[in-house]
């Protein structure tokens, strides 16, 4: 599908003179963590800097198309290389001043059944003539050659590469050969949460009298939820009120490939262990207000992911933003985000280690309270107004630098023709 852009109405002509940021990423109603991020980032930048107009190009799977609201101006068919190239050409002809790309391998390319990777973003990068800011949502240590090449191809034309943790920047420098002077760390944004008494959140969700463990996000096998279910008999034996909330629908890509096999396996494991009274599945993609309410009602947030390479986690960022005590396996993002006493790390593939961490929080409330305090302080630095301001400042600096470069080129051309003196171009 080729991107379509509407022409500005007469009333918008003055606004078009303002600077414009085009965001390329998935976007709601597509159920995807990147979609939520793109929506929240574009809104946060617009809120703190009204002079930066917002355009969104939604990356869509056109075999399951979505109907998009404003500010979506066009669609990029994620599996169509020509759609990517055409999007770049249309942006070149538009009033857009800077392009913000949300990079994730699964939406900017395609893994084929034999393990190869096709980089659909390559055509876009070859044709785009606007300044590019690339936000990397996945940074793999020790990547396969074609994945390293895809990131290097994105970084080469990008003015700035944004990572969400410092560790990702170090990996990009040491293992991908990226120039550290072109990288900037800006944390994953989280909503501004209005504190409410936990009892109020529990009442609205009918969770009174329960000790709540929570994992949320789109379900897939790498989330490790079965590891928490496997240790529930031990935890429930000491804390009979415990309830494990598994919040979120199955990832759409997983559902398309294998249906609900993973969720069915989890449900069967719950039944086999006799834990029906201690596990509740909330099989929906929740809007932010409802999701925040579940987090506010949570006692311990758990991210038991099975892979070490995950460099970002919006779910963990949200939990920290709500000031929750977190137990996690030590994937890359968790190792940095939970440092300095902001949470507890359990060993990979070690149910006893996971159980010990959860029980420590349940049985030592003073340790849990201190982790909650530190998590909340850290989470405040990730709130969207602060993150949006950092992106807005970055976009503005790039736009200003680009304008001066254009003036310098114009000056050079005029001087070569014996034209206007330099003072004409000084602010």
Distance between the termini: 44 Å
- Per DSSP, the total helix count is 17
CATH class of the largest domain: Alpha Beta
Q: Oligomer, anyone?
A: single chain
From the helix content, strand content and strand pairing, which structural class follows? alpha/beta
Unreliable spans: 1-17, 420-427
**In which order are the strands of the major sheet placed?**
3-2-1-4-7-8-9
Question: What is the radius of gyration?
Answer: 23 Å
Per DSSP E runs of 2 or more residues, the count of β-strands stands at: 15
Label the CATH architecture of the largest domain: 3-Layer(aba) Sandwich
How many distinct folded domains? 2
The rough form would be described as globular
Q: What is the CATH topology descriptor of the largest domain?
A: Rossmann fold
Outline the structure in words.
It is a single chain. This protein has 427 residues and is α/β, with parallel strands linked by helices. It folds into two domains: 209 residues, 3-Layer(aba) Sandwich (Rossmann fold); 183 residues, Rossmann fold, CATH 3.40.50. Helices cover 45% and strands 17% of the residues. The strands form three sheets. Strands 3-2-1-4-7-8-9 form a seven-stranded parallel beta sheet, sandwiched between helices. Strand 8, helix 7 and strand 9 form a beta-alpha-beta unit. The chain is globular. The N terminus and C terminus are likely disordered.
